[in-house]
Amino acid sequence: MAKKTAPRAAGTRAKERGPAAASALPDLSQYGRLAEYNRKRHFGVTPEPPGSLASRAPGRPLQFVVQKHRAGHLHYDFRLEHRGVMLSWAIPKGPAPDPTVKRLAMETEPHPLDYNQFEGVIPEGEYGGGTVMIWDKGAWAPTVDDRLGDEADVDRQLAKGDLKFVLLGDKLAGSWVLVRTRQRQWLLIKHRDEYVSTDDITRTKPLSVVSGRTMAQIAQAAGATPKQLTEAAGTDPTPGGAATETGAGRPPRRRSGTRQQPRETRSA
C-alpha cells in the first residue's frame, strides 16, 4: 500500500511547493518594475510605502537618495530616479569621494519614489528589518561626453553597464560612474573633480540630512526592539570617529576553505 503523506502547511513558500503553486501568488503585474518590491513586503506590518509608479513633472530635477540601513548587516542604499522608480544598489561601505576607492554596489530591486521620504524602522521578521536613515539626498543627472543626458541615454548606459552621472546633494556632489562587473554587481567610483576628498564621509558626516538624528535616535523614536536599537547604535561613529559596531572599519577575516564575497578595490 502506498504511504500517505501529510499535507503541507499553507504558509510553505511557493518555491518549495513547485511550479503549480505560482498561481496562488497575488497578481502584481500591474506594478511592473515594482512588482518585486511589493512582493517582498507586508504593508500591513511594515511602515514602508507601497510601490506605485510615479510620473515626473516637466522640468523637475531627477531625485537621488542614499539611505543608511542596518538590516542583517550595515549598508548604504544608493538610489537614482529613472522612469518612475528609484533604481537601487546596496553599497556595504557607503559611497567614497576618493577616486582611488572603488566601492562594491550590488543591484537590488527598484523602489518607489515615495521611499525617498522613509526614515524609521522596519520590524523584525520583515524583509530588510532594521533601522533606516536618510543619509543624503538631492538631484542627479546622467552625463554623455560633455553634456547632460536624458532617459534614453540612461537606458543605453545601463545596458552597456557604464552609467555616468553627476550628483548635487548635501554630502555627495560632482561626477561619478557606476560600472557593471558582472550580473547585478557594480562598482561606484568618483571621478576627479573639485569635489574629490579622501575623508571617510560615512564617519565624518554620519547624521540624517532630514532630521539631524543618529541611527540610535531614529531607532528609539520609532520604537525599535532592544536588539534593533543596539544594532543601530553600533553603526553610529563614536566621538573619536570610530563606529562601535563589532568589526566596523576592519576587513573581514579570511576563512580557509571558504569563498569570499566580492569586495571593493583600491586602484594604485
Architecture overview:
The chain is of the alpha+beta class. It has one domain. It contains six helices and eleven strands. The protein has helices at residues 14-17, 35-39, 151-160, 201-204, 215-221, 226-233; strands at 62-70, 74-82, 85-91, 101-111, 120-122, 130-144, 147-148, 162-169, 173-182, 185-190, 265-266. Strands 1-2-3-4-10-9-8-6 form an eight-stranded antiparallel barrel. The protein is globular and about 50 Å long. The termini are far apart.
- The span between the termini is 71 Å
What strand line-up does the widest sheet have? 1-2-3-4-10-9-8-6
Strand tally is 11
For the CA atoms, what is the radius of gyration? Answer: 20 Å
| Mean pLDDT over the residues | 84
Helix-strand makeup class: alpha+beta
Estimate percent helicity: 10-25%
User: Mind describing the biggest β-sheet?
Assistant: 8 strands, antiparallel, barrel
**How many separate structural domains?**
1
What is the molecular shape? globular
